[in-house]
Prior knowledge:
Elements: E1 2-3, E2 15-24, E3 43-50, E4 56-58, E5 60-61, H1 64-68, H2 81-96, E6 103-107, H3 113-120, E7 124-128, H4 135-140, E8 145-146, H5 152-162, E9 165-171, H6 180-190, E10 191-202, H7 204-210, E11 222-223, H8 226-234, E12 238-246, E13 252-259, H9 267-278, H10 284-310, E14 315-318, H11 322-331, E15 341-342, E16 360-361, H12 363-368, E17 373-376, H13 382-388, H14 390-394, E18 398-401, E19 405-408, E20 411-414
Parallel strand pairs: 6-7, 6-9, 7-8, 9-10, 14-15, 14-17, 15-16, 17-18
Antiparallel strand pairs: 1-5, 2-3, 3-4, 4-11, 10-13, 12-13, 18-19, 19-20
Helix pairs in contact: 2-3, 5-6
Amino acid sequence: MIINSRCRICQSDKLHKVIDLGSQPPANAFLRPDQLDQPEERFPLEMHVCGDCNLAQLIHVVDKEDLFSDYIYYTSGIPKVSPYWQGYADQVAEQCLHDANDFVVEVGSNDGLLLWSFKEKGFRTLGVDPAKNIAPIAESRGVRTVVDFFGEKVATDIVHQDGKAKLIIGNNVIAHINDHHDLCRGIKALLADDGTFVLEAPYLVDMIEHVTFDTIYHEHLSFLAVRPLIKLFEQFGLEVFDVHIVPAQGQSIRVFVGHAGAHEVKPSVQACVAKELELGLDKIETYMELAKKVEHCKNATLDILHGLKSSGERIAGYGASAKGMTVLNYYHIGSDMLDFVMDELPSKEGLFTPGTHIPLASKAYAEEHRPTSYLLLVWNYLPLVLAKEQAFLAAGGKFILPTGVVVDAQGVHEAEYTEEEKVPA
């Protein structure tokens, strides 16, 4: 682990700690049964905010080889993702690509699902991803993949072999990169003169508005907003020229970047800047207030869970997402509270949650050992889950959200909780 003493965008040393979620293992470091008695590495999980460019970020950086070289997340294994990425490919291709010979490169291409959509449209494609265990899946789809971390050197090698890219994509990956300057030098080197770099990431505004603090985990080194990104790209002769707000992982930003002056800057950019300033994303006090809300969510949720448990209800977790692991470890919820965590991703079957050691169970197991309540650890997919689990709700089942909200067949119920009723963690 390294500890940054300066902001990864502007190099300022004015880093203010605003949220402390304690010391936690990496969110995707799921355990095999034979590992349960072995020590787990834990690292501080703290959000800092730069006093100059206002980038929200982690300063404790876990080794990227440990996090990403053998990765457990498969894009095609996540419910409802495939249609989303197909729609993404259609929209971005229409906006950014105009020639059948256009070259598309994806940074963090995972199992090649998104690039495959572009390949099917006839475009040349290349993926870059460090996960040695996942790249063969992409290759089996016919998606060429460079197994490496993207940066200036990799970008230069690609240009020498394949030429410059009309479109570079980075979805839910830019926030994982510690060296933003090397990233931008790579984008600058690889991007065609009239090309577009499109990044998508959870929007910091969503965390402020909806307390989605569980997007804080060690893979997410930065929590992105438009204003800091503008300052980042300006340093390298690049320019943010359009921004779309999209309903992914709650609320995400899809940011369009080109060489400075190559594209008309659309009103959407200034609209996001104005929104961020209106919400106070330039003020440290805003993040300190968020920290208070996070603590309230913890206490309210534990109050609900302890009440259900004392009434004899059986509780399980729903969805072993990385953000769910942040919740379990910060709330100190273990197997004494949850019987299991249900997850439909085959690669997680038979494993245990990092830090809290709750067994992961398949959908079939969950159906046979149905709890009376679920702690919804994938609450960013709430509408999809509710539509899928109508029978569970009709039978009297409940979903508890990590924000202290209960959802049942009758609707959404805010927890009746005050700080005086705080339950010890």
